[in-house]
Amino acid sequence: MGMNKAEFERVLKYFDEDGDGKISPCELRNKVGMMGGELLLKDVELLIDEFDSDGDGLLSLEDLVKIMEDSGEDEKLKDLAEAFEMYNDTQMLGFITPKSLQIMLGRLGESKSIDQCIDMISHFDLNGDGVLSFHEFRVMMG
C-alpha cells in the first residue's frame, strides 16, 4: 500500500525547515541528526544528488516520492519488517509504542526517557494516534 500525497507532503514539511517546499542538504542532515542518525554533509549531498530531478541541489516533493518508492525494494522491506517486529509492542502487535521503543533502545544500549520516546514517535506518527504503524516506521527509516 503506497503513501498518499498528503502523507508525502507531511514528510516533506517535517524536513523542510525554511518552508520553501524543498529539502536542502542541511535540513536533511539536521532532521536525521535529531533522530539520532549521524550523516556527514557530503553523504547527504550525495544522497540528494542521486534523487535530485531538476539539478538544483534540493529535494522536491517529487524527488521525495521517488526516494520513498525506490526504497520499496523487497530486500530492504524485509529488513525493515524484521526491525519493526523487534520494536513491536507485545500488548499491541503491529504497532511500536513509546514503551516498546524505550525497551528496544535500552537493549541496544541507548537509554531514553519515556518522554524522549514519545517525542521520537510523534515526529513520524502520521495519523496522530501516538504509536507507529509499520508504514510510519518505514517513513522513519526512509
Could you describe the 3D structure shown?
Helix 5 packs across helix 8 and helix 6 (98-107) packs across helix 7 (114-124). The chain has 142 residues and is mostly helical. It has helices at 5-15, 25-34, 41-51, 61-70, 74-87, 98-107, 114-124, 134-141. The longest helix is centred in the middle third of the chain and has 14 residues, at 74-87. The model has no long low-confidence stretch (mean pLDDT 80). It is built from 8 helices and no strands. Residues 3-38, 39-74, 112-142 form the EF-hand domain. Keywords: Calcium, Repeat. This is EF-hand domain-containing protein. One of its GO terms (molecular function) is calcium ion binding. InterPro entries: Centrin_CML-like (IPR050145), EF-hand-dom_pair (IPR011992), EF_Hand_1_Ca_BS (IPR018247), EF_hand_dom (IPR002048).
Radius of gyration: 15 Å
Overall spatial form: globular
Counting DSSP H or I runs of 4 or more residues, the number of helices is: 8
Main beta sheet, described? none
Beta-strand content bin = under 5%
* Helix-strand sequence: HHHHHHHH
Flag low-confidence runs. none
Features:
mainly alpha; EF_Hand_1_Ca_BS; EF-hand domain-containing protein; EF-hand-dom_pair; EF_hand_dom
Q: What is this structure's SSE topology?
A:
Blueprint: H1 5-15, H2 25-34, H3 41-51, H4 61-70, H5 74-87, H6 98-107, H7 114-124, H8 134-141
Keywords: Calcium, Repeat
Domain EF-hand: 3-38, 39-74, 112-142
Protein name: EF-hand domain-containing protein
